[in-house]
Amino acid sequence: MKAYEKLSVTLPRKISTMSAAFYICLLFLCLQTNGVGAELTPPENVTIITLNTNYTLSWDWDQSSAKNHTVNFTTQYVAKYKLKSKKKNPIWSTVCEETSHRSCDLTKLNLYYLGIYVLRVRANVNGRLSDWTLKEFCPDKDAAVGPPSKVDLSPAGSDLDIFITDPLTSTNSSMKDHHPELYYHILYWERSGDRQPLKTQMLTSSANMVTLPNLKAWTWYCVSIQSCYDFYNKSSSFTSPHCMQTEGVIPWWQILGYFLVSLVSCFVVMLLLLCGFFWFVKTLKATLYPSIQLPPHFQYLYDSPGSDIPHLLTPDSDSDLLCDKVTVCPEPLVLEIHEPPPEVLPAPPLGLEPDSSGRHSRQDSSGSGDSGVYSTGGSSSLRQSNSNQSSAGAEDCEQGHFDLQQLKMQDMAPRLKTQLLITDEGIVDMCV
């Protein structure tokens, strides 16, 4: 229209005599020459998404009006009563300026819940502005109420106690501050294997703690709650089902079973702890204080008679004065005498006549044969003569060896069937 007014001023007055068709064509050519296009389409379907005190303004817009250009939107608001003032123009407050989103969050404005506001939004494409689209909004009337923010169940015998937390605002305060008459519809039913409840019951209450009466003992029940406000006929959606099992009288045998199980468990645990403790103490004592003590001749290694900690020997200690020499003796040889049977013994030689005492004399000392068995008496004399040149320790070892042989000979003498002959020069003849 502005281009048309400008054109009508510049055209001479004689143009009015021209035909209407020619005038329209000329006007169209002038509009194309000046670059003036069609107006932008304003935002459409402006709605407000609300829940308690959370508000979001959203809208739609035809993108074909901008073709491939970027479009931005501006959102403003003002209290409705300011528009009725005739003294001064109202001052619009901008909430979202030149945003490409098709929504604008109004929650941060903290609007007065009982107030009435006017909202407007427009589009902008490369400096071309669309008309404003207006939307009136009253939180108390238009804002939806939400379900309870929290629901808890607690068994009370065969009944169920329900604890309801009020819907919360954007500042985490109760919605009952804005809707004092807010109340709840409580829907409950007995849970079964099927998804659909067999029978539902409804209970209405404005209290935050409600008890469901006349329920079956040891039975599962599910509860779902809805918030309601009658003044503007508001109602929320139902909460998700919350299920809980009721209780009842516990049988005495079950109580006794629980007691016995707990008693046995405690006994086993304490027994294991005690066994583990004694085993640990015993192992620690055997490691640090062994029961095997050193012999008495090693007791000098300790610092004191009552001490359990030995001390180290120093090079200049008098350990040599406390030690005795030890002599190691070889194992003595054992003299073995084999006794033949009597029938294999040869007859005694001529000249030897046994006497009544069981002895026989030697007729010819040079011609008599030896028995082949000799004692170690002579060798012992030789060993003793040689041992005079050895140390005192060797003498004791030889003397012990000789005494051991004599002892074995005496033990074997009663089994011999022959008797000792007359000794001569330390040699004993025996008849075999």
Protein architecture, described:
It contains seven helices and 16 strands. Helix 6 (377-387) packs antiparallel against helix 7. The strands form four sheets. Strands 3, 4, 6, 7 and 8 form a five-stranded antiparallel β-sheet that branches. It has 432 residues and is α+β, with helices and mostly antiparallel strands. The longest helix has 37 residues, at 252-288. It has helices spanning 2-10, 20-34, 80-83, 139-142, 252-288, 377-387, 392-412, and strands at residues 44-51, 54-60, 72-79, 93-99, 103-105, 117-125, 128-129, 133-137, 150-156, 159-165, 183-190, 200-205, 209-212, 220-229, 234-235, 242-245.
Task: Produce the secondary structure layout.
Layout: H1 2-10, H2 20-34, E1 44-51, E2 54-60, E3 72-79, H3 80-83, E4 93-99, E5 103-105, E6 117-125, E7 128-129, E8 133-137, H4 139-142, E9 150-156, E10 159-165, E11 183-190, E12 200-205, E13 209-212, E14 220-229, E15 234-235, E16 242-245, H5 252-288, H6 377-387, H7 392-412
Antiparallel strand pairs: 1-2, 2-5, 3-4, 3-6, 6-7, 6-8, 9-10, 10-13, 11-12, 11-14, 14-15, 14-16
Order of helices and strands: HHEEEHEEEEEHEEEEEEEEHHH
Extract low-pLDDT stretches.
1-18, 25-37, 356-391, 416-432
Pairing-aware structural class of the strands and helices? Answer: alpha+beta
Task: List the total number of helices.
Answer: 7
β content, as a range? 15-25%
Q: Give the overall silhouette.
A: elongated
Task: Report the end-to-end length measured between terminal Cα atoms.
Answer: 168 Å
Radius of gyration: 64 Å
* Main sheet specs: 5 strands, antiparallel
Average predicted local confidence, pLDDT: 75
Helix content range of the residues, please?
A: 10-25%
